[in-house]
Amino acid sequence: MSPSLRQKTSLNIVTDEDKDVMDRVKDVWTTSSKKKRIEGNTPEFDKMVTSRFPGAITNLELETKVVETLAGFGFNSDNTLLATSLCADELARVLEDDFVKVYGNNFNLGGLSGFPFAGNTGFGAMSAHIPDEGCCLMIYAPHVGVSKDGTVGKVERAGIDLIDTCCGSAIAASNYLKGITDGGAKISMSLQQFSDFQQGAVQELILPHGKRLADAENRMIELPYALYESQDILVGDIVQAGSGGIKKGGIALLGGIQINTSPDTMDYFHPLRFDYINSDGEVVEDLLPKITA
């Protein structure tokens, strides 16, 4: 429904349905919980995070730039379906929920560590749910925690005294791989165990990165980037195979690393890919410079 056809109240009050996407982003970041996180983001904390993950930006900056950029391609709350391939961890929902408040419903394609376990079938179903002649924003990313003291792979969680690991699935897969590269363990066939097949798949998908992680100066920093590379290949294959289902408005692929922090500070995202793809499955424009400049 176009803005001109939307129904206003008798007092000309702008309702939620009347708000444009940039107003919705502003609304996300004016809640008390978001204001608290903004206030907790001191320059010292920001420097600490970005020194470990150069190129990372706050979720506030990411969401503002992504939504503004896509508005120029006609993406709005009426015609856009959000699709995500993010980890099952509740911390991954923070970014997802923010974009849901802008665009509406989300189609979940992801599972442990953020891998697109819904696969070709899930992508095909998602494409069928895009509004006619509409658009899709697909976000995919592994995630990693950074604690208040700067420890990568750990994070504070609301209501829990223990500083927990993050991402637990990724770290478990990394430990599995380390056992193999160090020479003391054998490759498992756990992928065939239905009761934990996603974790088995994560372990298999990380195998090519054994030397890279072993040689890394900081294994926990390198880990999400290794996972991202495997995810990016899978997402590319899935999108290419399902390109016939992309609607007229096209699809925007936003890939990168989610960086989760404590409930008192903002989360971050390191964008590594932001492509606009048309209904023929062709990359029309690399939008990454628009959100990283």
Distance between the termini: 34 Å
- Structural class of the helix and strand makeup? alpha/beta
Instruction: Count the DSSP helices.
Output: 11
What percentage of the residues does DSSP assign to strands (E)? 15-25%
Instruction: Please provide the count of β strands.
Output: 10
Nearest-angstrom radius of gyration? 20 Å
String of helices and strands: HHHEHEHEHEEEEHHHHEEEH
Tell me the helix content.
40-55%
How does the overall form come out from the CA principal axes? Answer: globular
- What's the pLDDT, averaged over the residues? 91
Give the assembly state of these chains. Answer: single chain
User: Unreliable stretches, pLDDT < 50, 5 or more residues?
Assistant: 1-15
Q: Describe the sheet with the most strands.
A: 8 strands, mixed
Describe the structure.
This protein has 293 residues and is of the alpha/beta class. 41% of the residues lie in helices and 18% in strands. The chain contains 11 helices and 10 strands. Strands 1, 2, 3, 4, 5, 8, 9 and 10 form an 8-stranded mixed sheet that branches. Strand 2, helix 5 and strand 3 form a beta-alpha-beta unit. Helix 7 crosses helix 8. The longest helix has 23 residues.
